[in-house]
Amino acid sequence: MVLEILEYPDKRLFERSVEVEKFDTQLGEFLDNMYDTMIAKSGIGLAAIQVGRPIRALIINLVNDKDIQDKADLLEIINPKFIKKDGEQLHQEGCLSVPGYYEEVKRAASVVVEYQDRFGNRQIIEADGLLAVALQHENDHLDGHLFIEKIGFNKRKKFDKEYKKKPKRKPL
């Protein structure tokens, strides 16, 4: 089922999400719905808070080297904890909650993240490049932050001015 994505400036996007404690079929169904939503909206990542549920859960599904977004490559990351962040990279980011806006953001070049899967099993992932960016971007959502908070004062002023002029979409 495709869920509604919250869009900036919805105040719920700035809530800090709470840890997942119950790993059950409801969580699995919710993760499946998040995936359907992300794919329907042409995203590569989605945090639970973006669909109105303030739990520490995110999904990422990057395009592979055959230019296919294969569900077999889907990462479901629950209760992430960054163990290590190294280096720096600039990457142009966008967000399903800030549609139509893209800007370069400085992130760690490589990360190590401990997390739980949909069944509660502990996992560790090491990532660099776009995957490291996506992990940091989606985790920011869980902490109540959007990428536009990282773009610098002048770019943010310009963004706020342009975004206010943008016609608002009416909910379906």
Domain count, please report it. 1
Shape: globular
CATH superfamily: Peptide deformylase
The run of helices and strands is: HEEEEEEEHH
Beta-sheet strand percentage? 25-35%
What is the terminal separation in angstroms? 15 Å
Which strand order does the major sheet show?
1-2-3-6-7
Which sheet architecture does the biggest sheet show?
5 strands, antiparallel
Instruction: Return residue spans where pLDDT drops below 50 for at least 5 consecutive residues.
Output: none
Sheet/helix structural class: alpha+beta
Corresponding CATH architecture: Alpha-Beta Complex
User: What is the CATH first-level class name?
Assistant: Alpha Beta
Task: Report the radius of gyration as a whole number of Å.
Answer: 16 Å
- Helix share, percent: 25-40%
The CATH topology turns out to be Peptide Deformylase
Per DSSP, the total helix count is: 3
Set out the fold topology.
Blueprint: H1 25-40, E1 45-47, E2 57-60, E3 75-86, E4 89-95, E5 98-107, E6 110-116, E7 122-128, H2 129-142, H3 153-165
Antiparallel strand pairs: 1-2, 2-3, 3-6, 4-5, 6-7
Describe this entry's structure for a reader.
The chain is an alpha+beta fold and 172 residues long. The chain has one domain (11-165): Peptide deformylase (Peptide Deformylase, Alpha-Beta Complex). It has helices spanning 25-40, 129-142, 153-165, and strands at residues 45-47, 57-60, 75-86, 89-95, 98-107, 110-116, 122-128. The chain has a five-stranded antiparallel β-sheet. A two-stranded antiparallel sheet has the order 4-5. Strand 6 and strand 7 (122-128) form a beta hairpin. 29% of the residues are buried. Its EC number is 3.5.1.88. Keywords: Hydrolase, Iron, Metal-binding, Protein biosynthesis. GO terms for molecular function: peptide deformylase activity. Its cofactor is Fe(2+).
